[in-house]
Amino acid sequence: MSCNYADGLSPYENKGILGVPEKFDSIDKFIKKCELLAQFINQAKHVVVHTGAGISTSAGIPDFRGPNGVWTLEREGKRPSINISFADALPTKTHMILKKLVECNKVHYIVSQNIDGLHLKSGLPRKYLSELHGNMFIDECNLCKRQFVRHSPVETVGKKCSGIPCAAEHVTGRPCRGRLYDGVLDWEHSLPENDLLMSEWHSSIADLSICLGTTLQIVPSGNLPIETVKYGGNLVICNLQPTKHDNKADLIINYYVDDILEKVMEILGLDIPTYCENDNPIKRADSTIIDWTIDRRDVVQLEKLFKSKCKGVKKKRNLVKSKRNSSDLILLNGVCDKSKIVKRDIKEENVINEDIKIEPVENTSETL
After folding, report:
1. Deacetylase sirtuin-type domain location, by residue (predicted)?
2. Is 298 exposed, middle or buried (0-12, 13-18, 19+ CB in 10 A)?
3. Which residues are catalytic?
4. Which contiguous run of DSSP H or E holds residue 236?
5. Is 161 strand, coil or helix?
6. What does the pLDDT look like over 231-269, one tens digit per residue?
7. 43 CB contacts (<8 Å, ≥6 apart)?
8. Pick from 135, 140, 138, 146: which is nearest to 168 by CA?
């Protein structure tokens, strides 16, 4: 269904850097880096995870810019051979692990660029999730802006009207004369205000941002993890392809996201939950009205926290980390030597990032 979603978008030529070869760390490097990531998580007070299309490929949903991505193949007149429907796709191991880490208070917020609804299906509460580019299983009222869970994916994209009356009266007790629209952004749309605000504030107060399965090419979503770095926090990037912010990261892991988080869970001594349909709001949406609106009280509370921690704090201007070889990783007695940072050591990837420039796309979707 990624193909159908892509087909429904308006024409747009600048889709970023496509089809860059993937890189895999050796097993030894992979294990050491996962140990370091687990340490970062244990030591951090506020962890934000940024998720992209790469965390859903193991569910059968193709990504967009990978070697076999929708737009990479589109240039050759091809389509992905695997393309499960959004209705049938189930949360991956990564989705379930993230839910568990939130429940254990080791991850405090998730910023998603995906429209596939898999975070929703996993049972992750709205309180801990921003969906910057919409959700195929969410309708939004054009007047009161309340959001409601659907029992099936929308048939349109680009905020088109379904003609269904707003259901706010069943939630608030006050009638609304609005109509429901699909909540999936097209290229020209602005990001949802509260989702973006929560993402910006959480990223700013975080002392650790972890990027999973995204090349971070589309702004503003791709630049949010950099807010963590500007305020002195650590940045970890887990992706098979190079990203435009690799030179700002403290740790880069080139491996499958499912495998990375599974190893981290093993190190942390945490069990990986399995998907349960009873936790999936979509399964209940055909018989009851389920509100998916960000609670205004959460926005106000986070704004106060952001102002108390960040207001008046001078942001860092030099964000580029000193480059070190991965062999510099030192773990002594379970303590990371912060002067030795795991860095990329593939010159070809540096050439790719330096030689190819893309124009930033404002207020649109990484999954686009």
Report:
1. 20-271
2. middle
3. 133
4. strand 234-238
5. strand
6. 999 999 999 999 999 999 999 999 999 999 999 999 999
7. none
8. 146
**Residue in this structure with the two tokens 């007695």, named with its chain if needed:** 333
pLDDT higher at 69 or 180: 180
How many C-beta neighbours within 10 Å does residue 144 have? 16
Which single residue is written with the structure tokens 């510099």?
328
Classify each residue of 206-220 as buried b or exposed e, where b means 16 or more C-beta atoms within 10 Å of its C-beta: bbbbbbbbbbbbbeb
Residue type (1 letter), 3: C
* pLDDT reported for residue 68: 86
Name the residue with tokens 């070809």. 348
Describe the strand order of the beta sheet including 147-149 as a list of residue ranges.
Answer: 147-149, 138-141, 179-182, 161-165
Cite the annotated binding site for Zn(2+) by residue number.
Answer: 141, 144, 166, 176
Q: Could you give the residue ranges of the DSSP H alpha helices within 209-270?
A: 224-230, 257-268
Residue 230 near residue 203 (C-beta atoms within 8 A): no
The count of other CB atoms within 10 Å of the CB of residue 124 is 22
Give binding residues as ranges: 141, 144, 166, 176
